Amino acid sequence: MRVARLAAALLLALSPAMTLAQSASDKVPTADDPDAKESVTSRVPLDEIRRFVAVYNAVRAAYVDPVDDKQLMQSAVRGLLLELDPHSTYFDKEDAQAFDEQATGAYEGIGVELLQQDNVLKVVSPIDDTPAARAGIRAGDLIVAIDGKPISAIEAMEPLRGVAGSKVVLTIERGDGKPFDVTVVRETIRVTSVRSKMLEPGYAYVRISTFQADTAADFQKHLNQLQAQSGGRLKGLVLDLRSNPGGLLTAAVQVADDLLDKGGIVSTRGRISISDAKFDATPGDLMKGAPVMVLVDAGSASASEVLAGALRDNQRARVIGSRTFGKGSVQTVLPLDNGDSVKLTTARYYTPSGRSIQATGILPDVELAPEPSDVNKDVPASLVDYSEASLPGHLRGDDEATASKAGVVLSGEGPVQSALRELKQPGSVASVAKAKPATAAAPAAAATAHSAAARTEPAKPEAAAPAAAKPGPITPEPSPAPAKADSPKPPVDDGK
């Protein structure tokens, strides 16, 4: 699949209807249009808007202290988004710039994926080989203060960024213990999302830590190198997606396409019909039919769930690990004319079988669990139910009522070796698991099983870049120019 075509299709599908400001000449659906029932622009609540303006003017004119117009309006917009799901959020200019910097894979900070909740920042996962990971920050940790200031009193994300070499003190709650401080030294974060190594002759391991613009290019490069080490053909592949919080939907589609000869990959559906899309594989399986095991855990979300679901539904791979996070939604970043932007959930996605994993996740074919002695050992309280379904205000899932308890975060080499055994001898780990859970370390920072892998540097996603058709090598092109004001960027999946 040509990524340039895919990215353009996604952008084209969303641009006409998702602009945040319309001119008088813009076509607005009427009651006769098929999309009228879906349209969010067909009836503007003028009375409510007048009421808002009246309150706004009253605050400006009569509040006991002077108010800042910009802050007042930003607070109003944030209040509007509070009633939506936890992945829809407002970025001021600085936040939007930081978001874009992370998309390029180079920014100054501590290297951690976060989800803002009431008065805390929840750690989705530290990014591999970053200051946060080296400082011992774990998935599920709750950051309650930054440099001594409570989260509720500050612009939450901003203090984490800063000049490389400067320090930031995080106050963390973990489990039932008392809050403790961790000092982290900021660095320039340059992260490459793909790492690899040979597990044993003929059997390869590829770790994808996040999905970004160059992920598919790196995946192809690593796979080609591994095949060359094996005389041109691999016997099998362990694809590690543990604690992968997501990223670009297009990147996940590319990687799935690289491992599929045919079949569907993913479809998206939103309220506006032109946002509906379906993506299919094109001929050219880079593994040439060799078996694949996909390793997942509770930290595997969104784009990583897209990939796991596509490979399993097409019977191209089996899944091993723990139930995934269950984020089945797609976000679009909508720039505003003042430099601010809105990240808005615009669609749900569905696996090739037509199933939504929203708030349910993917249950592995072979389930791994911590040893009984480790189940309650040093487990952050926020990992007791580490899932989309536990987030306040989350989108309801189609099958949410049938989902069992959330999965666990698996770390270390144990799950990798279990995946390799199951890859070489299907059923071997599954039969052992019935009698005794397979070994997995207590929940910790983003999976570190690949620490001995060939070191390439890690990075964060959000902006799509074209790539060449498979199966030839992909050369990433420069990131596209910034989108024009009030036109949406390509859909992204923001992790959790």
TrEMBL record:
Belongs to the peptidase S41A family. Residues 96-175 form the PDZ domain. Residues 439-472 have a biased composition (Low complexity). InterPro entries: ClpP/crotonase-like_dom_sf, CtpA/B_N, PDZ, PDZ_6, PDZ_sf, Peptidase_S41A, Tail-specific_protease. SMART domains: PDZ (SM00228), TSPc (SM00245). Gene3D superfamilies: 2-enoyl-CoA Hydratase, Chain A, domain 1, 2.30.42.10, 3.30.750.44. GO terms for molecular function: endopeptidase activity; serine-type peptidase activity. CDD domains: cpPDZ_CPP-like (cd06782), Peptidase_S41_CPP (cd07560). One of its GO terms (cellular component) is outer membrane-bounded periplasmic space. This is Peptidase S41. It comes from Stenotrophomonas humi. Residues 439-496 are annotated as: Disordered. Keywords: Hydrolase, Protease, Serine protease, Signal. Residues 1-21 form the signal peptide. It comes from the Bacteria. PROSITE patterns: PDZ (PS50106). GO terms for biological process: proteolysis; signal transduction.
